[in-house]
Amino acid sequence: MSNSKPNCEIYIGIDVSKENLDVYILEHDKHFQFSQTETGLSELVETIKPFNTALVVLEATGGFESNAASILASSNIPVAVINPRQVRDFAKATGTLAKTDCLDAKIIAMFGKAIKPNVSAIPDEALKEINLLVRRRSQLVSILGQEKNRLSSANGFMAKSIKKHITWLKKELEQLDKNINNFIKSSPIYKDKVQIFKSTPGCGPVLSSSLIAFMPELGKLNRKKIALLAGLAPLNNDSGKFKGKRRIRGGRENIRSVLYMPTMTAIRFNPVIKEFYERLVSKGKPKKVAITACMRKLLVMLNAMSRTNTAWNFKEQLIRDKRLIRA
Description:
Layout: E1 10-16, E2 20-25, E3 30-35, H1 38-48, E4 53-59, H2 66-74, E5 79-82, H3 84-93, H4 101-115, H5 125-151, H6 156-185, H7 188-198, H8 205-214, H9 223-229, E6 238-239, E7 242-243, H10 253-269, H11 271-282, H12 287-308, H13 314-326
Parallel strand pairs: 1-4, 4-5
Antiparallel strand pairs: 1-2, 2-3, 6-7
């Protein structure tokens, strides 16, 4: 299809790699390739701008998509950054088994036209910076855990080497925590948000900074959508007469992993979460299910506090709980 419909809405898919961006303009059946350089990104914008773009769709590829998404969004071009798994499932559903960069870009564009995903909120430079810092902290914590596991079965030179690495990792974590803390203090917006989060019993600096970095939608969505976004909303598993157990799946694993320990603390010291947990267990709910429900409840509480810009208030939380129970 050529330029027979110049005024139609255009869906564009971009297959992202470390060095290149493969662009497919669906309604015009055109393929372009641009380099992941300043010149290439400028050419990308100049190529897309003339079209009546409904949506540009990119896969999340470990950060390689961020520069392209940012420059397109800053040029007022609607952008959706999506989970690669969704595109793979869509390709399988359409019977597309072959794989090339051009074909991948076309499938992404087809996915955008068929599904019409929401336009993504592209982070500003400050949010990108804290995202990188917090992401690096998560990497170091993971490496530290691996080294501690290796140390349990090591001896001799290997044990000495691992201990030395563990000491270095701990110092790096301390410095990184200072950098994150200083960065948040330098930003009035994030500083106030973190103070609100930390006022909640169970929510400390690690969870607070992770919420800022990994869930910028907090306070902008309702409680059901924010729980679904984090992968903490129980989803139905029914078919015909079969009624399966509701389970959580999908969502942002980095948020769930960082929520677990604060929730365990909140079960002990946060009166609202503690009462909620005990009520679920007394009704026969398995403890793992109750803990997951408490993780969801803690996130929903923080979402409400972020939306209203109000710190933790025990009485207000109890009133809100009673309203939810009646509803």
